[in-house]
Amino acid sequence: MVYVLSKDGQPLMPTKRYGKVKHLLRSKRAKAIKRCPFTIQLTYDSDSYTQSITLGVDAGSKTIGLSATTKTQELYAAEVTPRNDISDLLETRRSLRSSRRNRKLRYREPRFLNRTKSKHPGWLAPSVRAKVDSHLKVIEDMTKILPISKIIIETASFDLQKIKAMELGLPTPEGTDYQKGELLDFVNVREYVFWRDNYTCQWCHGKSKSNILHTHHWAYWKGDHTDKPSSQITLCDKCNDSKNHKPEAKMLWGWEPKITFTAKGAAFMGIMRWSVYNELKEIYEPSGIHIKMTYGYITKANRIAYNLPKEHRVDARCITGYPDVLPAEEWYNSKKIRCHNRQIHKSNPKRGVRKLNQAPYMVNGYRLFDKVLFKNTECYITGRRSTGYFALKTLDGQKIHDSAKVKDLKLIEPRKLYLTERKAQV
To answer: Which residue has the higher pLDDT, 269 or 159?
Structure first.
């Protein structure tokens, strides 16, 4: 599918007449302005007739599904992965700044701009704000290449207690069960954690023969400093030794027990769903694009009725209201990347010597995440060396080469905020 813009930049209906597109490009009556998805802009005045196109958005914390359809066919399908590292990066920055203040080194004075008084109405945590912005950005990109007339977004409010019961294999809560939390009949969290773990150390499983038990905050290493039961686990006094908490011990640091349940994604959706919907209405309804909300149970019913696979882009097609239209021949896998790394020096200097954390802007003419061609394979630069060797991977993480020579690379397109790959529809 080739996407077409008019002479003044307005989106027109896409085309599959590749011979016609080739003729227009050769005769200079059109110019290519985007490679993936391939988009051309006409250089002559043309008719602006368009059909009604509905954009379905399967909103999500980890993956966003997109599908643009008419009544007869799907014109665009994509799955977008937003950033999920914001919280970890903020926690790392906080700890590094705190460490520098305590050691009387260079540091930025605290500004106190993130306190309660400075949080204006509609304020969102940075991690949630980043996901909301990702939704708005991908929808904006769609409206730039297709004449969207209607946007339908799926939002959901999750029953966290029911999800947790299903995850842990417990009976489904009903009626007054919602008033009976997991700490019912327990004096405190510590007593509940011991009972849940059968009064057994969850690391050595009783092999140490120690009868002294402790509750361990297993998730502290990943920035979870809460006292909720899912963040604590039972350890004996021998396994809970201070030396076992250090990264070099390769024991408790980095350990993620399987018995825990997290509703982080559901909580994200509960917070951001109205923000996305309201901001879409504010942005697009003045220009005549109708915004509508739908719910997950409707999408699920449509998907099951037409025997469709569980994919985010397929769910987005069901959201449009036309699940049985001819699907697109290809779909686009996109991923949001970090724009900048502003950490000046490495946090763990060797022998007290500070070393720059940032690589040069260009290394042998290439930047990080540039799309290149290596032995007829399109891939991305994920690592650079000043000696002229590069690490290459696809967007799915498949390793292409650990040390490719610079002379074997050919630049396809420079890095962008969203890395995009074209995939064949299965």
So the answer is: 269
